[in-house]
Amino acid sequence: MEPPLFTPGELLCLGSSLAFSGLFYYLYRKKTRVVARIQEAPKLQVDDDLPALVSAADGRCLPYVALEGIVLPAKAVLTSHYHERLQGVIQKLLLKEHRLVWNSLARSWSESERVLSEQVYTVPFLLASPDTEAVTQVSVESPLRAVCLPLEVVYERFQQPAHGFRDLLGQYLSGEKPKGILETEELLRVGAGLTGIGELALHPDGSLHLQPPSQGADYFLCLGDWQTVLEELESASGLWKGAAMLCAAAGLAILLHALCRAFLRARLRQQREDKELDSEEAGDGGLEDSCVICLSRPRECVLLGCGHICCCFRCFQALPARLCPICRGPIDRVVPLYQA
């Protein structure tokens, strides 16, 4: 029975590599499209010429722009819990527990974390021009729908628990050891430079609004300029591309390995068949030309007067009687046989 081209393990690895390669390529293409759209988007700054520019667009809306400005609160403002002088418009309070978990397979402790509490607060805020004489302001809508929040850490404290002997004994028996609790506060501060990438619309009351794109494109808010977002997306795109190529190369290696193995099997089978055929031909030739007495040496003489060619000269000399081994007729004389 002919063995299958792929073993079950190879089929599993080949299917997995192709599936992951397709997934990573899809993510790479998605990131590439986002990068291309950001590169093509108009790069604007908040100034007094902005309302006229948006008003001249179709539907008084620019579908996708990169807008730079300074963060200002619309009305109320958020104050840091730990620094009274710090004020912001988005605040995130995070409480995270860090633990060490025993990995019996690796025979070592590995770190894990668990979010105990996460609170996000936001107030309406605007993007304004760095020029104090400009009066145009843009309202930033739905900041929590952005791909990631443009926050910076303003407070961080790690609290380590105190362990007694009984606690340590229980931790080693349970395989879990609390490492500590990390408390952080992140803030989008008033006065920070912010770049928003999304839809810019002029409302009937004359106010400008930066909002998530209605066509389903990604909505970005980031500290710094638009090139920061672009570099991060290009880095992620390159990562997905490399992962897709690596998985495709793994699948190709498995395929080539199976094909080479099948080729070697066919080659060995052909060599074996050729060898058997040569042996059969050599065997047939040996039976026809070999001495009928010893079956090993070639026939070397002609027995007269019957004329049979049936034995080698050594076996002829060893005959007990001068009779032909074939017809049992008397042998008058022997003539050597010469084969050209």
From TrEMBL:
Name recorded for this polypeptide: RING-type E3 ubiquitin transferase
Location of the protein in the cell: Mitochondrion outer membrane
Signal peptide positions on this chain: none
Any Gene Ontology CC annotation: mitochondrial outer membrane
Residues of the RING-type domain: 291-328
GO MF terms held by the record: ubiquitin protein ligase activity; zinc ion binding
Catalytic activity: S-ubiquitinyl-[E2 ubiquitin-conjugating enzyme]-L-cysteine + [acceptor protein]-L-lysine = [E2 ubiquitin-conjugating enzyme]-L-cysteine + N(6)-ubiquitinyl-[acceptor protein]-L-lysine
Lineage of the organism: Eukaryota, Metazoa, Chordata, Craniata, Vertebrata
Keyword Transferase: yes
Membrane association type: Multi-pass membrane protein
Domain of life assignment: Eukaryota
Keywords attached to this entry: Membrane, Metal-binding, Mitochondrion, Mitochondrion outer membrane, Transferase, Transmembrane, Transmembrane helix, Ubl conjugation pathway, Zinc, Zinc-finger
GO annotation (BP), single: protein ubiquitination
Pfam families: GIDE, zf-C3HC4_3
Transmembrane segments: 6-28, 243-264
EC number: 2.3.2.27
Presence of keyword Transcription regulation: no
EC class: transferase
Primary residence: mitochondrion
